[in-house]
């Protein structure tokens, strides 16, 4: 990829053949497609260890599709996704499935099983993928719920708690196996501003305490600027990335009108 920093301020220099020691995820010349329908092409960016990395862009640009590629649910049409020199799609299916246990995923709806209590929802992953005893599982479940501010809610069903609490319960489940990388799909969707801010604060606290890397799909400007320190901007029209870097710096320095309009929407002129 050509170094565009000198003549395109919206780009931050990315060298595809160089992998910095702090890069946790490296995306190289990625093309995403459904059959012959190309969603995005030429994606190239690094997610550094400890980042809160934002995937942003307008509706229909492929944000959630990129997330599915990063977590191993959809294979690239072209290019590579590397986790510390390891290509997810060069593994055999069993190796990939085992490697993916290093990921924790919070889905947009929380995706909790309605017929299970919060404790049962979180325990399910531990029962499936570990040989821990029942008492050990119960101890971990209580710890994860306490970490997200839901101590004492083990026996509640999803229908008995608020939307914000469901998000936090989903986050507790995502952390069940102590993942290295947490992936969130629109975590603030459907929340009021106060609940959304509390969730942002929780994400920051967990990133720092667990030393995890966090990747978030979101269009919420408050969250983008409050917690994001790195990002990629996907453009639906050109079907490629048109900016990458710290969102606050992009707001100040990026001259691309699409990125500028996205980052300044709702602001008084």
Secondary-structure blueprint of this entry?
Blueprint: E1 23-34, E2 37-48, E3 52-57, H1 63-70, E4 78-83, E5 86-87, H2 93-99, E6 103-106, H3 118-129, H4 134-147, H5 163-174, E7 181-185, H6 193-210, E8 213-217, H7 221-227, E9 230-235, E10 240-244, H8 247-253, H9 257-264
Parallel strand pairs: 3-8, 3-9, 6-7, 7-8
Antiparallel strand pairs: 1-2, 1-4, 4-5, 9-10
Helix pairs in contact: 3-4, 3-5, 4-5, 6-7
Explain what the structure shows.
The chain has 269 residues and is an alpha/beta fold. It has a domain at 49-64 and 97-264: P-loop containing nucleotide triphosphate hydrolases (Rossmann fold, 3-Layer(aba) Sandwich). The chain has nine helices and ten strands. A six-stranded mixed β-sheet has the order 6-7-8-3-9-10, sandwiched between helices. The chain is globular, with a radius of gyration of 19 Å. 36% of the residues are buried. The model is unreliable at 1-19 (pLDDT under 50).
With helices defined by DSSP (H or I, 4 residues minimum), what is the helix count?
9
Mean pLDDT: 87
Query: Can you count the beta strands?
Result: 10
Can you identify the CATH superfamily of the domain at 49-64 and 97-264?
Answer: P-loop containing nucleotide triphosphate hydrolases
Query: In CATH terms, what is the architecture of the domain at 49-64 and 97-264?
Result: 3-Layer(aba) Sandwich
Termini Cα gap = 36 Å
């Amino acid at each position: 990829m050509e170094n565009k920093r000198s003549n395109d301020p919206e780009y931050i220099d990315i060298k595809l053949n160089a992998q910095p020691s702090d890069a946790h995820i490296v995306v190289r010349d990625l093309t995403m497609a459904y059959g012959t329908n190309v969603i995005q092409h030429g994606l190239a960016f690094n997610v550094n260890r400890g980042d809160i990395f934002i995937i942003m862009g307008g509706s229909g640009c492929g944000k959630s599709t990129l997330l599915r590629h990063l977590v191993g649910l959809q294979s690239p049409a072209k290019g590579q996704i590397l986790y510390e020199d390891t290509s997810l799609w060069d593994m055999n299916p069993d190796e990939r499935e085992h490697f993916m246990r290093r990921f924790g995923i919070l889905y947009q709806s929380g995706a909790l099983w309605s017929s299970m209590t919060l404790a049962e929802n979180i325990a399910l992953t531990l029962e499936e993928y570990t040989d821990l005893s029942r008492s050990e599982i119960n101890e971990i479940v209580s710890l994860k719920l306490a970490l997200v501010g839901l101590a004492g809610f083990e026996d509640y069903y999803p229908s008995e708690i608020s939307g914000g609490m469901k998000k936090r319960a989903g986050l507790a489940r995502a952390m069940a196996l102590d993942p290295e990388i947490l992936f969130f799909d629109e975590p603030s969707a459907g929340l009021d501003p106060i609940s959304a801010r509390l969730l942002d604060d929780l994400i920051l606290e967990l990133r720092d305490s667990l030393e995890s890397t966090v990747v978030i799909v979101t269009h919420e400007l408050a969250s983008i600027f409050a917690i994001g320190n790195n990002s990629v901007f996907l453009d639906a029209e050109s079907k490629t990335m048109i900016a990458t870097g710290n969102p606050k710096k992009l707001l100040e320095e990026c001259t691309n009108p699409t990125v500028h309009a996205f980052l300044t929407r709702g602001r008084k002129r």
